[in-house]
Amino acid sequence: MAVPVEVAAANLDVAFRKTHTNRVHLCPLDCADDLPELHFGPNTIRKLSATELEELVDQLRLKRTFSKRSFDAANFSEFTWLVVRETVTIDERVGTRAIPFFYQNWAEDFGAIDPHKSTYPIAMESALAFLMLAPWEEWTESADVEWRCFRIPWIYTIDDDIFSRPANPPSADTLSWQPDIVYDHYGQEIDLGERPSRWDLKEQVTTELPTWVNDQAWSEFSRAQVSPLFSSPVLHFLLRAYRSSEIDEFLANITVIDSALGLHSDHGKGPTARLVARLSSLLDDDAGNDYRRLFNTRSEFVHGRAMEAIPGKDRLRARRLARRATVALVNAAHQVADREGYLDKLWVAVRKGK
Asked: Where are the alpha helices (DSSP H) in 133-199?
């Protein structure tokens, strides 16, 4: 397991001089059904063999660092993975990379809230937000109960900077497994152990998903991210809806539309009516009417009024409206230089139609 002296010396020389590092974020798609292999920009979705996983995580280095833990490549190879790659600028001071604790600014306000801080690495958040534009709710067999087609319980990041300590390898037990039982021709039960749990998808996902997740769509999404239409935290709330559940998920999806189509200048001018009008113009009248009703449900909860359980169909409608509105903005982003002007045009278009 030891590295030859000459190789170690050469690696150290490169590491001391480097200004950038390559990172790979391994994201298990827990509960995912069979998905086609997908490529979008530097990112991929596919199954990885045990050998591929061991090479990615540098299993030998992990064994040297964690004598009692290893990356369970054999079990992890049974899952589908989102693999996100990025190159980032690093501090040329080796100490900040090797022992960042010693370089911490202790005068910092640790209770301060950074409204723009991401939960995941930014490259990972972009990839996941892009995936959330696909109509997963149309492909799952139990959309009223769970529209997501996979969960991402954790991210394992590999950094090729040798001064960055590897992360503790996760356990395969953190993912979802179920008994794997079959029956022989005599009807006798045969226990094969366990296999990954799956949320069933409709067959058309195999042909339809690649039309949403591809290099061209990724390129258009990447351009849209830096456009004025996404200067508000639309994608932040889209991701929050994915990561949340029940009422928090519902509220986040409603807030996606507010963030996407709302203006500060709307205050005092019937802001909800303007949101409804813009959504109707952007999508269709049914979308506007659905949003009005769902927003009223949201208000009942926020303001503490008596309310019944929110039906699964309304939970799904909120997700669908949030996704469709975001997709429409991505499609329009290349021709919009002024967000406020664009949203005003949506409002005026509805007013003229009356």
From this structure: 136-139
Closest CA to 218 of 39, 5, 9: 39
Query: For position 353, what pLDDT does the model report?
Result: 61
Q: Length of the chain in residues, anyone?
A: 354
244-295 pLDDT, tens per residue?
999 999 999 999 999 999 998 888 778 999 999 999 999 998 999 999 999 9
3-state SS string for 145-195: CCCCCCECCCCEEEECCCCCCCCCCCCHHHCCEEEEEEECCCCCEEEEEEE
Q: What is the DSSP string of 289-311?
A: HHHHHHHHHHHHHHTT----PPP
In contact, 351 and 269? CB cutoff 8 Å: no
Q: Is 265 helix (H, G, I), strand (E, B) or coil?
A: helix
Q: Quick check: 93 and 15 in contact, CB under 8 A?
A: no
The distance in angstroms from the start CA to the end CA of the chain is 75
C-alpha to C-alpha distance for 287 and 279, rounded to whole angstroms = 7
Q: Which residue has the tokens 């892009």?
A: 130
Please state, in angstroms and as integers, the Cα–Cα distance from residue 235 to each residue in 128, 136, 244, 251, 323, following that order. Answer: 10, 17, 14, 14, 10
Return the SS3 of 81: strand
